[in-house]
Amino acid sequence: MRITNTSELMLKYQKAKAKLVEYGVKQEDYPNFQLNSNDLSFSTIYIISNYVEAIIDDDSEKIELFSEQLKLVSEYYDASIKSRDRNYYNEDFLMIGISAYLLSNDFGSATVLCSMLDDCKRRCGSQYILMSIYKYILLNKPLEKSESDFEEQIISDLRKYYKCKDINIEILMQKLSHYRIDVYNKGNALDVFYVDILIAVVMSIVDNSSRRLLPKYSGISLSIWKNYLEKNTSAKVLWPAQQMMGKNGLFYGKNAIVQLPTGVGKTKSIELIIRSAFLSQRASKVIIVAPLRSLCNEITNDMIDAFGDDVKVNQFSDVLQEDYEILSDDLFESSMNEIIISTPEKLRFVLCHDDEILDSMDLFIFDEAHMFDDNVRGVSYEFLMMEIRKRLNNDNQLILLSAVLSNSNEIKEWLLGNDGIVASNSEIKSTPKSIGFSSKDKTTYYYSETPNEYDYYIPKSISVEPLTLLPRERKPRFFPELDNPTDVAIYHAIRLCKNGGVAIYVNTTRSVRSVLKKFICIEQRGYDISNIQQVTDSEESIKLQKLMKIYYGEDHEFYKCAKYGVFPHYSNLPNGIKLCIEYAIRNKLISCLVCTTTLAQGVNLPIKYLFLTSVRTSQVTMQARNFQNLIGRTARAGMYTEGSIIFTDTKLYDKKDDNKQGGNYKWSECFDLFEASNSEPCNSSILRLVGNINANYQQHLKGKNFVEYICDNYLFDNYMEKIEMEIKESATKKEIKLMNFFFSELALRKELLESLESWLIYAFIADDNFNDNYYEKARQLAVDTLAYHLATEEERKLLLSVFEIVTTKIIENLNETELKLATKTNLSVDMYVRINKWIEENELLSNAISEDDLIILICNFLYKIKDINISIEQFIEVVESWVNGKSFYYINGETNISIDILETLCNSKISYDMSFLIGNIIDVLCEKEDSDDIIEILTQLQKKIKYGVNSQSAISICEIIFNDRLISLKIVEILNDINIKKDKIKVIIDSNKEAIKKMLIDYPSYFMYKLNLM
User: Fold this and answer.
1) Are 947 and 955 in contact (CB under 8 A)?
2) Lowest-pLDDT range of 320-324, 380-384, 455-459, 762-766
3) Nearest-angstrom CA–CA distance, 335 and 284
4) 548 pLDDT above the threshold of 70
5) Is residue 328 very low, low, confident or very high in pLDDT (cuts 50, 70, 90)?
6) Residue 327 pLDDT grade (very low, low, confident, very high; cuts 50, 70, 90)
7) In the Cβ-directed half-sphere of 69, how many Cα atoms lie within 13 Å?
8) Running DSSP on this structure, what letter comes out for residue 912?
9) pLDDT at 611
10) Which residues make up the CATH 3.40.50.300 domain(s) of the chain?
11) What pLDDT band is residue 326 in, cutting at 50, 70 and 90?
C-alpha cells in the first residue's frame, strides 16, 4: 500500500482540524471538508502494523516501503490528539503517535507526546510494557514493575541492559517472541496490535541505544562508559544527529564542520563529544566558543547540568582584561578536566596576552560558527581560526557547528583540508513548521510545499472588535486594524498563547517599544488581553515587573506590559533583565515575547508561534540564512511537535497575484526564504575589502577602484575623507539618498582595515620563525586566509595589494620595539599611536590621577573617536551615573535624555566601547615603566564601566553569581562590604544567604536559581 493523494489530503484536513482547535474556532464555523479524515485511521493502522511486522521478520523490502509512510502515521495521530474530536481514543492515539515517531527516529517529537501520557489503567500487557519503556527512554522515568511474572522478566532484562549489566539480547528477543506467541494465542486484538509494536520498538531502542553505539563510535570500552550510562539522566538512545556525528568519527577525535538544522539535539551532541574526549584521555582541556554572552551563559549552565562536579566549568568574563588568573595558576598542573566557555573576542584577547593558553587546549568547539562574514567581528574570527589551525596536531580536535553554513565544504577545504570532514545529513530535519498568512478576509491560509496552493485555511481566525473611545474622541476605533501587521500579530499572540510560547518579531528595537505601547493602548481601551495573563505565572509577572520598575520606572511600557505578561527581548536590553526573561519563558512562567533578531542568535527558548510583522529592513529583505536561523528557534525538539510561522502583513497574501506593484515578487521572495538551498554562502569579511559596493543596479563603486584608491592614499591621515568628498561632488540630487549607504560601507571598510592592521601586528611578532621580511609574512598570511581561498584570481591580486599597503603603514609608523609593544593591544596603528600620545599629554605616568579625573579624561577621548549624539557634558554626567549604579529612570530624571537613548548609550557606547578603550589603554601602559599604580586604577575602573557598578563587591557578584547591576548593588548593601574579591565572594554570600534570599524573593526566579546553584 502506498500513500495516495487522497491520504495526503485527509492528513491536511486532520491538521486543519487541529489548527481550528488551536484558534478556538466554533465547530459550526468549520469548513466543509471534502473527505472524512477520520477514515485515515484504517490506512495508518495498516501502515504501522505492516511496518513493525516487517521489522520483526527482517523483511528489508517491506521495511523500505512502509518506513517512508511512517511520517504520515505520526503526523496524523499527533493531529488527531490535538483536534479533540475523538477524545475516547486519545490514549491509543498517543501510543501510536509515540510509536510512529520513535520508529522513524524522531525522538524529540516522541518525547513531546510521551510527556502527555498520564498514568492510565492497564488495558493490556503489551501496551503497559510499551508505555513503561517510553517513559523510561524518553522521560528518564524508572521502568515500572509488572503484575505478570513473564512481563516483569522482559522489563527486568531491559533494565539490566540499560544499566550495563550482563545481558544476552538474543535471549531477551526470544522471550519477546514467546510473549508474542502467547498474546496471539489469547486473541485479544488490542494486545496483538501492541505486542508487534513492542517487539519492533525494543529492537529499535536497542539498535539506537547509547550502550551499543557510544563504545562503537568512540572506540572506548563499555566498562569505561558504564559510569555515565548508569546515571538516570544519561542519554538512553542516540538521536539521528548524534549518530551522524558518531559515524563521522567526531566521538573518535575527528576534526569536522557540522552542518545541521537547529533543534536536532546539538547540546547533547556537544556533551557526548566532550565526554568521549575526556574518557579516551585525548583531552583534559576543552574550550567552547560562542558569539554571544547570552549563548555562553546558556552553554555554561548546560555543561554544569551535564557534568556536575566531575568537571570544572569556567566561563571567561567578557571584560577585555587579564582576569583569568585562575587558569594561569592551575591550568597546566590541574588533573581535573576543564571546560572553558568564551566569546571570540575574549579568546582573541587571551591569545594576544598568553598564547600558551591556546596551546594547552585539546578540544576546540565553535558554536554558531558562521561568523566569518560578520562585519568587523569576521576579521578577528577568521584570523582566530587561522591561529587555532596553526596549533592543531594529531592530538587536538576542532569542531565547528552551524545550522546555516551552506558552503561548509569550501570552509572545510580551507580550514581542515584532508584532516577533517563535513558532517551533515540532509535527511535530518528540524521540527516541522506550518506557514500561515493572514488576510484581510479574516482568514489565515496555511502552506507547506508550494506557494501555488494552500494546504488548508482557518476561517474567522481574526475577529475585529470596536475599542472604547477615550474622552473627546469621536472617530470609531477598531482592533485589529487588518492592514496593520503589528495589530494582526498582537491579535494572534493573544488568541494563540494558550497553546504555547509566542514571539512577535519586529525588525528594529524601536518597533519593540511600539508593539508594547499598542498592547497598553488596546488594554486601556477595554480590549481583553487576559488570555496572556492566564498563561503567565502571576507571581513571576509581579517579580519581573518589580525589576522593570527599578530600571525603567513605573511610567515605562516595559513596566506596564510586565503586568500583562508581555516582555521585550533585544540586544541592548540590560543583561540581568534578558536572563530573567529567558529563564522565565524557558520554565513556562511567561509565554509572550516581542523580539528582534536576537531570538535567532542561538538561545533555546520554547517558542511555538513566531509572528513575523516584516522580513524587510530599510526595504532590504532579510538574508535567507538569517531567516532560517530565526524560524529555527520555534518548536525546539522535545518541546513541541510543530512550530507555526505566521506572516501578519495581510498585503503579502492579498496581493500575491499583483504583477504591477510587485506583490507577486514579494510573495515568491517570501517562499524563497524557506528554501535551505537559497541560504547565502558564508563569506569572508576580509574579502569584502576588495568587493564592489553596490547601492543599487546602477550605482556602485568597483572593488578594484577602491583598492587602487587605498593603495594611493592609505598612508595619509584621514584618507577616507577624500573619497567621501568625491562621492558627494559626483552625486546628483536624486542620488543624495545613496550617499549615506556609501558612507556607511566606507566606514565599515575603514574598520575592517584597522582590524586587519591589528592582526598583522600580532602575527609579525607572534611567529617564532619570523625572519623580519614583513612583506613576505604578510603575503603568506593573505594566502592563508579564507578570503583568499574564496576569491577569484582578480580578487586575490587585490587582496595581496591590500595586505601589502597595510604592512607598509605598520612598518613606516612603528619601529621594532613599538611593534613588539603593540602586539598585545589589539589596536590599529593609528589608535596605538593616538593612545600613546594621549597618555603622554595627560601625564598618566607622572601624575597621581583619581578615578573621577580618569573618567573625565576617558570620556573626552571616547567622545572624539566615536559618534556620540549628546554633548560632552551630558556624556560625562551619564558615565558618572552609570558607574555609580544609577538606573536609566534616575539618569533620565537628572539629564532629561530619553530612556531609549540612554539604554543604547550605556549598553553600547559605555559598557562596550569605553570598556574596550580602557582595555586598550591598559595594554599600552603595561609595557611602560612605573605604570602599576595607574593600571590598578584603570583595571578596576574598566570593570565598573563594563558592569555599571561602583564597587569591587558588585563586580565580583556580576562575574561569579549573576550579571545584574542593580540587584548586585542590593546584595552589596546586605554584605556591608564593598571590597570583596572574586575568590572570596561565594564564601561571604553563603554566610549571608538567608538575608539575600529574603531580598531576592521579591525579584525574578532566575536570581534565586543562580544563588542556589552557587
Assistant:
1) yes
2) 320-324
3) 8
4) yes
5) very low
6) very low
7) 23
8) I
9) 97
10) 212-424, 433-677
11) very low
Residue 895 has pLDDT above 50, yes or no: yes
Q: How many residues does the chain have?
A: 1014
Q: Calculate mean pLDDT across residues 453-460.
A: 93
Q: Would you say 808 and 828 are in contact if contact means Cβ atoms under 8 Å apart?
A: no
In the three-class reduction of DSSP (H, G, I as helix; E, B as strand; rest coil), residue 61 is classed as helix
How many helices (H) and strands (E) are present in the chain, helices listed first?
48, 21
Render pLDDT for 609-630 as a digit per residue (tens, 0 to 9): 999 999 887 667 788 888 888 8
- Using a 10 angstrom Cβ sphere, with 0-12 exposed, 13-18 middle and 19 or more buried, the burial of residue 816 is exposed
> 338-353, pLDDT tens digit by residue?
999 999 999 998 888 8
- The C-alpha atoms of residue 110 and residue 878 are separated, in whole angstroms, by 53
Q: Supply 913's cell numbers.
A: 566601547
In the block, cell 530535519 appears at: 429
Bridge partners, residue 364, by sequence: 287, 398
**503-542 pLDDT, tens per residue?**
999 999 999 999 999 999 999 999 999 999 999 999 999 9
With a cut of 50, say whether residue 72 has pLDDT above it: yes
Residue percentage of the chain with pLDDT more than 90: 73
> Omega before 31 cis (within 30°)?
no
Cβ neighbours of residue 650 closer than 8 Å, sequence gap 6 or more = 438, 439, 440, 482, 483, 485, 488
Q: Return the CATH number of the domain spanning residue range 212-424.
A: 3.40.50.300
| DSSP-based three-state secondary structure for 173 | helix
Q: Which of 805, 831, 811, 714 is nearest to 761 (CA)?
A: 811
Give the C-alpha separation, 721 to 726, whole Å.
9
* Owner of C-alpha cell 560632552: 872
Instruction: Compute φ and ψ for 256, nearest 5 degrees.
Output: -160, 150
Query: How many Å apart are CA 830 and CA 865, to the nearest integer?
Result: 11
C-alpha–C-alpha distance, residues 806 and 715, integer Å: 9
DSSP letter, residue 656: T
Cell of 447: 502552506
The answer to whether the CB of 858 falls within 8 A of the CB of 917 is yes
- Residue carrying the nine cell digits 594561569: 328
- Within 10 angstroms of residue 371's Cβ, the number of other Cβ atoms is 23
Where are the strands (E) in 88-128, listed by range? none
Q: Does domain 433-677 have CATH number 3.10.20.310?
A: no
**Sequence-separated (6 or more) residues with CB below 8 Å from residue 380:** 344, 345, 348, 755, 759
In one-letter notation, the amino acid at residue 919 is G
Amino acid letter, 530: S
For residue 644, give every residue at least 6 positions away whose Cβ sits within 8 Å of its Cβ, in sequence order, or none: 433, 434, 435, 436, 496, 608, 609, 610, 634
108 neighbors 72 (Cβ within 8 angstroms)? no
- What are the two backbone dihedrals, phi and then psi, of residue 400, each rounded to the nearest 5 degrees? -115, 135
B/e letters for 443-465, b = 16+ CB within 10 Å, e = fewer, are: bbbbbeeebeebbbbbebbbeee
Give SS3 for 167: coil
Cα separation, 437 vs 446, whole angstroms = 6
Neighbours of 740 (CB within 10 A): 10
